[in-house]
Design goal:
By secondary structure, this protein is an alpha+beta fold. 36% of the residues lie in helices and 20% in strands. Helix 7 (261-276) links the parallel strand 13 (249-255) and strand 14.
């Protein structure tokens, strides 16, 4: 059986499922804004995209000139857990933008992120620089454009059926749900690693899609008692993928038997894990599937309200984007005025009177170059001097000399 599972894992490498030993899903590379401003799409929501894994950390404008990490469970936000703040530090030398961890130290918390050294030397205090950042020791890209990533092929990858468990998965709009049913079969090391690798690919894909969240329902009423090494391995897996779980995890419901030796033993294990490794999202242990579904349904309803508020904010940004784009296109099509050219330094206008005089000056008709009056007559300062017309271009120098000699002979 172990050889079969190894063959299955190798066959899915081409599907880019992700996980230990498997390549990540091919991303759509994020293009940062070309300038220091956030472009026409606004600044209400900013995205830090990890250049290695393409998982997305969302920061929302707080209203005081800062942005706060907002893609985390509401429970963690209320407890000021994972309070990462994007802010401008005028006291720094030179003044610059940074990401500060205010979870424990408050305004004196540790600086965990800075723009790359290639950023502009003088940063705008109203807008963080888009582009490459160094955050948590890794390279990130800050952008105001919402990243897009393709979802998994659910019909091809699920359900996952192994001797000790069955995993069903489905998505409804922005809400993903994983349903785990444990069987009364011993857990082998190979199959357990196989399931963890698939689970890793799932949460990574969800973390790469900033709009997605995950709810988990685990039915362990018929589960066999796991070995200690498998419990430790699962806890290590959760720690290694803590960022992904914080980004997408929003609720977990575990169904256990309320009576019996096996049910009591499983409940003891669950309480031990919850005590030493508390989850950042709401979690409950119940005895019926109906209670579990009711618990998750309440969390999903709260999430939909939050989605509606965020969708309204994104719609407002899109409207501003369209308006700014139309205004920019209008400006590009319109010819610049003299005042705009003067402001840009292209032309120089001495005074407002000179500008009006130029506007009131009558236009001069253009005459062919081969006519005698190719230019209007020019009088000198004395009005008694007759205008001297310019010699036509078609007269050669010899013709001009001959005409002058004939004139002198006539005068004599």
């Amino acid at each position: 059986s172990s050889a079969w599972f190894k063959q299955q894992a190798a066959a899915r490498q081409a599907r880019a499922m992700g996980g230990p030993g498997l390549p990540p899903v091919h991303p759509r590379r994020i293009s940062p804004s070309p300038s220091n401003d956030a472009g026409p799409r606004g600044l209400a929501i900013l995205y830090f995209v990890c250049n290695r894994t393409n998982i997305v950390f969302t920061f929302s404008m707080a209203g005081d000139g800062t942005w706060r990490f907002s893609r985390l469970p509401q429970m963690s936000r209320q407890k000021n857990l994972e309070k990462f703040v994007l802010l401008f530090r005028p006291e720094a030398t030179p003044p610059a933008w940074a990401v500060q961890d205010q979870s424990r130290g408050g305004v004196n918390g540790e600086i965990i992120g800075r723009p790359a050294p290639t950023s502009q030397a003088v940063q705008d205090a109203l807008c963080p620089p888009m582009g490459i950042w160094r955050l948590w020791g890794s390279q990130f890209t800050l952008t105001n454009y919402k990243p897009r990533h393709r979802p998994l092929d659910i019909s091809e990858l699920f359900p996952i059926q192994v001797p000790f468990a069955t995993l069903e998965y489905h998505e409804e709009n922005c809400i993903a749900r994983l349903e785990v049913t444990m069987h009364n079969e011993p857990i082998s090391d190979d199959t357990f690693e196989y399931v963890l690798s698939r689970f890793k690919g799932l949460i990574t894909n969800l973390a790469q899609r900033p709009e997605m969240i995950l709810f988990i329902r685990s039915d362990a009423r018929n589960s066999a008692l796991p070995a200690t090494r498998h419990i430790k391995r699962f806890l290590s897996f959760v720690q290694d993928n803590g960022s992904e779980f914080v980004l997408v995890g929003r609720g977990n419901a575990i169904v256990l038997r309320s009576r019996g030796l096996l049910g009591s033993s499983l409940a003891t294990i669950v309480r031990f894990v919850q005590r030493f490794f508390p989850s950042p999202w709401p979690e409950t242990t119940v005895s019926t599937m109906e209670e579990a579904d009711e618990f998750l349904a309440g969390l999903a309803a709260d999430a939909r309200v939050e989605f509606a508020a965020q969708a309204a904010l994104e719609l407002e940004q899109d409207v501003k984007s369209d308006t700014c784009t139309q205004q920019q296109e209008t400006l590009e099509k319109r010819c610049p005025t003299t005042a705009e050219l003067a402001d840009a330094g292209v032309v120089h206008v001495k005074s407002q009177e000179c500008r009006h005089a130029e506007e009131e000056q009558p236009t001069v008709p253009v005459i062919r170059e081969d006519t005698v009056a190719s230019l209007p007559p020019t009088r000198w300062a004395s009005p008694d001097v007759e205008p001297v017309p310019r010699s036509p271009m078609w007269l050669s120098s010899k013709d001009v000399l001959r005409q002058q000699q004939e004139k002198e002979e006539a005068e004599e």
